[in-house]
Amino acid sequence: MKSRPHPRQPRSHQSKPRLVIKKYSDRRLYDSSASRYVKLDEIARKVRDGIDVKVVDARSGRDLTHLTLSQIVLEAARQRELPLPLQFLQQLVRASDKATHEFLSWYLNSTLDLYDKVQGTLRTRFPEARAAVAQPLELVRNLLAGHRWPPPGRPAKMTETERLRKRVKELEARLARREKPARGYKTGRLK
């Protein structure tokens, strides 16, 4: 499996962008490494594949990555008719001051990092979960192969019904012992 870079690492941990896209005044996007024009959906696919992309203004060299990625998100929401949650958009509009904007950026990055960690854990733990699910199948295989279950040397776990039956038998035995006449007595009368 291909190793993908972590998408939201701090700048100090990221390598230089592998792909530089130049945006011209006519809105055309040029992939300088492939020497061809590209569309927004191609850039989106590269980002999804884990490739670091940087978009710069061809004339001034100004970084337009944030604007381009925002445009990709908005275009995808419009095409799929899956808009971003209204409350989220309202908070973005309200985040006009620097402190609120920084907090929202921190919060979103933290949430997305947590999401990535959960996804990574699921990917690494999935084989373990599959093995746990496969254990009942292993039991059936062993039974069909003529093996005893549980294996010799391991005491069988009693079900609740079996425990109750055993307890009833114990109580019946105790009652039977109590009902037996004591020595010297016959059916409740003295000799």
Describe this structure in words.
With 191 residues, the protein is α+β, with helices and mostly antiparallel strands. It has two domains: 70 residues, no CATH class; 69 residues, no CATH class. Helices cover 53% and strands 10% of the residues. A hairpin with a 4-residue loop joins strand 2 and strand 3. The N terminus is likely disordered.
Number of helices: 5
> By helix and strand content, what is the structural category?
alpha+beta
Largest sheet: 4 strands, mixed
| SS elements, strand count | 6
Layout of helices and strands:
Elements: E1 19-23, E2 29-31, E3 36-38, H1 40-48, E4 53-57, H2 65-80, H3 86-94, H4 98-144, H5 160-179, E5 185-186, E6 189-190
Parallel strand pairs: 1-4
Antiparallel strand pairs: 1-2, 2-3, 5-6
Helix pairs in contact: 1-2
Descriptive labels:
4-stranded mixed sheet, elongated, 6 strands, disordered N terminus, 191 residues
Task: Describe, in short, the structure shown.
With 191 residues, the protein is of the alpha+beta class.
